[in-house]
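I'm stuck. Protein, please.
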Amino acid sequence: MSVNTKKQSMLNGAIILAVATVFVKLIGALYKIPLTDLIGAVGRGYFNSAYEIYTPIYAISMAGLPVAVSRLVSESVALGNYSNARAIYKVASKIFLITGVAGTALMFLIAYPYTHYIADPRNLPAVLAIAPSIFFCCAMSSYRGYYEGLRNMTPTAVSQIIEAITKLALGLGVSYGVLQYGLSRFNSGKTVFGSSAADLSEAYSLIYPYSAAGAILGVTAGTVFGLLYLMFRHRFKGDGFTRTELVNSPKADSNKFLAKRIIAFAIPMVASALILNITNLIDTVTIQRRLMTAIELDPELIKSMYNASFTASGTLEKDYVKYLYGTYGSVLDFRNLIPTITMSLGVSALPALSAAWTVNDKKNIRVTIESVIRVTMLIALPAGFGMAVLAKPILSFVYSNSADIIPIAVPLMTVYGMATFIMAASSPVTSMLQGLGRADIPVKTLVAGAIVKIVLNYILVGTPRFNINGAPIGSILCYIIIVGFNIYFLLRISKTRINFASVFLKPFICAALSAASAWSSYSLCERFLSSKLSGIRVSGIAARLLSPNTFSTLLAIGIAVVVYILSLLLLRALSKDDVTMLPKGEKIAKKLEKYGLLS
């Protein structure tokens, strides 16, 4: 069968990636929830700090290259040049090998100066543990970019799931083993990783950096197993091109020419990703440094604001900054959830839009752009609003064994929840600009947004009365600038007009109704169950699963989903184009159209 008949539709491919992403996020929750219980907010601070130095180097190593491969492969397939598509993959594999080795070497070289002069020397084990994953990620991305260009998202999805499962199993196992080893050393009166501990709190303070490094080793192992799967899949299943397609295909371009095209197309995206990740690195450093400044300026105010949390967690005064930053990192898990899912829309849309742009298919250009933005809003608005109104019950369920962080995390999560739809649109819109060959525009808008973010973080986080609560404000304004300008240029370049009511207004109304139903149903149910179950006492995992909060939260989410779906249908917020791109979408669309439920 021809590869052209096997390729997935834009939304179908996005659904495959989205389902995989949801599964990966569930595994991630199973990973990070017990990890936070295990190593606390302080340990999460070390875990997150290692990621912040890792991500910009990772961006230098490979960001942009998978997108370049995907776009060029989809362009070649659209023109029937299958030999060229395969040649692009072979050239890209060599480029990824070189950049992976260079990225890993750079990570090892920069680890010591970063931890000793910028972050915290105790971060060194975690940074070293994550360094090799850059090489394996680069190697994986050559396969992922190739298959995504062929509009086959399944290999990417399966490799992501394998990564997550490995991270869960090995990361938690090694982290727990390190923690128990350190405690056994303390309990037997020996030194803990080379230092003496006066009491249990001091022992935990010495153990957390190494336990966090153990958790990160699971991340690195996940990239190894993900790569092995892609290598075996490609070896035994190939890319789907038939002998006839390859024989009749035009002669492939030279390797030198293809390498220049890949690099030339990737440079703007590398710059964009590099600016973003360096901004995040600066963000991390400035947040921690400015938190330190805020504590020094008014230590009594900070202690009065968070005294209950500091006391409940047994956090030492020297670890206040790491504790607040680790709590912020726990909220970022939720902030990044929906944007990670909607990112799959951009990954799937890029080859589809690139192919339509190559052959000047105006209808598919318009349908793709409008559908991607509308589906992003349909996913992000209700999820974000729900996250905002149910911030406390969700956090109370997820981090019931780390309840000390909840009073600090709730306001952060509420603010991010209300702005989720803006952040969720960033990646899909950026990908579509890249599909049109304008990867330079996101670089420029990102620079403007990054400057605003850094300045506001410096001012607000360093102000004692705001401290960690000032961090979301800079991030949100940064995304408003990026997304606003990117959408403007996307519509202008593609000469596309979108239906504002269909894309934004109707999803907003439906999401608001859904959030209102979630808040009211949770409040009523939790109040009722609390009075009825007040005499029942349970402990352990049963307390988490059978509490009034858990039942009320799940019921509220279920009611909100029903209200949202009914609102979408009654307001006719879905279009026929959206539904037909779903699996078996034609049949679903006919039934909905029969009852006048599509726009």
